[in-house]
């Protein structure tokens, strides 16, 4: 039976268990065999029972399409004999089952949330009751993560503006270099040798350009380290096989990818 925070539910007698849980998603026999890990079944019986259970699980889970717009009153009456702790434990098990199914199929959580949001928006005008309007499909942790992502994006924009300012400064500083070089080329006088002020101006301009270029390189390098290299290293340490799969996927059909890149230009 489901336990809440390590505290077991009160024991149920054999007489009570016969009427406590009517056959629904799983039959009474299937529940007992799952609890016993099919210990009393031979290989053929175990496979037969597991196939039947798979069929009932699939049919039961797909029935949630009908329950999504079931009236609030019926939900309330269906669970009115369960206390909050039992409801929490039940919802936790449901959540674990759905998350395991999502993870097994490699589906992104945001895709499920987006689909559920669209479904809730479509049902909100049809349902009687307030439960559909009170459903929050994004957790507080997700809100915090989105806030951090927005803050990082804003910070990136600020540093991007600084890089743009530096590049403009470098462009302005490069003008004396170009003018001096052009004048020294088209005239017969050696301006750099005969005019000290020209040489000083060009040296200062070159110094500004070098400093700006070094600053831009450091900023872009720090951004790449923080936003690309370190996260990629963490992802590789957590799931190296996923990184290998992504690389293998990226290397497939290079011709098609090059054509797509060409079309985007």
How would you characterize the overall build of this protein?
The chain is mainly α and 265 residues long. It folds into three domains: 1-62, no CATH class; 70-137, no CATH class; 151-264. It has 13 helices and no strands. It has helices at residues 14-20, 28-35, 43-62, 64-67, 72-78, 84-104, 109-124, 131-134, 140-186, 191-194, 196-238, 240-251, 254-264. Helix 9 (140-186) runs antiparallel to helix 11 (196-238) and helix 11 crosses helix 12. The longest helix is centred in the middle third of the chain and has 47 residues, at 140-186. The radius of gyration is 33 Å and the shape is elongated. The relative contact order is 0.04. Mean pLDDT is 76; it is low at 1-21.
Determine the strand fraction and express it as a percent band: under 5%
Largest sheet: none
Instruction: Give the domain tally.
Output: 3
Order of helices and strands: HHHHHHHHHHHHH
Counting DSSP E segments of at least 2 residues, the number of strands comes to: 0
Helical content, roughly? over 70%
Overall morphology: elongated
Task: Calculate the mean pLDDT score and round it.
Answer: 76
How far do the termini sit from each other?
Answer: 60 Å
The residue ranges in which pLDDT falls below 50 over 5 or more consecutive positions are: 1-21
Radius of gyration from CA coordinates: 33 Å
Structural class: mainly alpha
Compute the number of helices.
13
Transmembrane segments: 165-183, 198-219
Keywords: Membrane, Transmembrane, Transmembrane helix
